[in-house]
Amino acid sequence: MSGRVYRTVYEIADGQLGYVTTAQARAIGLGHAAIANLHHTGAVDRISQGVYRLARYPRSAVDEYMEASLWPSARGTEIRGVISYASALALWEMSDVSPAKIHLTVSPTYRLRRTPPPVLVLHRAALREADITWQHGIPVTTPMRTIRDCHAAHLGPALVRQAIDDGRRLGRLTLDEADVLMAELFGAKHDHRRTGSR
């Protein structure tokens, strides 16, 4: 039984950097006792309320973002937080921003029933499907949406400009998208020569 349970949990966790929530386990018919047994035997580690991680799964540099995105879904299988704002810039490796906390966007209708971990900053927004993409299996706002959000949050013009430059250089933004952002946010054209673009 325990071997079958572990394999089933592994199938879910493998697409989430080794993480699984109790809600996801329940959705495939595994009760709390099954997860508790895996935890008791050392097969999984408890990360936070309702979030577990396979004990022997290789660690990743972006684990903290996966943990954050799963935090809202611990009680509901369809609820995922989306990495956003400065944290999304860091995940996209655009600009020198290094946020001390993880910014997470949830639906305006998300009902907060527990205190978020101190590391989380929650934002509420009705993100469109076109505003969300995936990095390393983690939901994150697109580079365009991320830069607009950061500008609206007064991140600072130098960092926002750098994010646009880095986005174009790294292929996260097209030339046209960089031009649109420069015109929209700064009323200026993007200087492709300055960033080495052709």
Describe the protein in words:
It is a single chain. The chain has 198 residues and is of the alpha+beta class. It folds into two domains: 53 residues; 124 residues, no CATH class. The chain contains eight helices and eight strands. Strands 1-3-2 form a three-stranded antiparallel β-sheet, sandwiched between helices. Strand 7 and strand 8 form a beta hairpin. Helix 5 packs across helix 6. The longest helix has 13 residues. It is elongated. The N and C termini lie far apart (59 Å). The C terminus is likely disordered.
Please supply descriptive tags for the structure shown above:
39% helix; 16% strand; 198 residues; 2 domains
Brief characterization of the structure:
It is built from eight helices and eight strands, in the order H-E-H-H-E-E-H-E-H-E-E-E-E-H-H-H.
